[in-house]
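Why do we bother with a discrete structure alphabet at all? Because it lets us treat a fold like text: something you can write down, compare, and reason about line by line. To make this less abstract, here is a complete entry for CRISPR-associated endoribonuclease Cas2. Read it the way you would read a sentence in a foreign language you are learning: slowly, and without expecting to understand everything at once.
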Amino acid sequence: MSQRVILVIYDIHDDDLRLKVAAFLKRSGFARIQKSAFSAPYTPALLSEVEAGLRRLLRERDRYDVQVYVMPRSSYEERIVMSRGYTPEEGEELLI
């Protein structure tokens, strides 16, 4: 089990681009943890793949904010989650 986690968060106004980013992250093995946030266990290969894939998708777009964090699993597990009425999309579960 990886001792680190990759967290990707984004604010993308373009609906088409936002859907493409979400689909790419899902295909790459990330789990949706919020509408615009995904997480996955860290591997150097996955981090490289995600950075390259996101850069391809975002190329020549003019308005977006995408942030990729690598953090210790312990920090991720110590997060405080406050949620009511929100469930992951059908068929999705948190992988961490």
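What the structure line is telling us, in plain words: The chain has one domain: 4-77. The radius of gyration is 13 Å.
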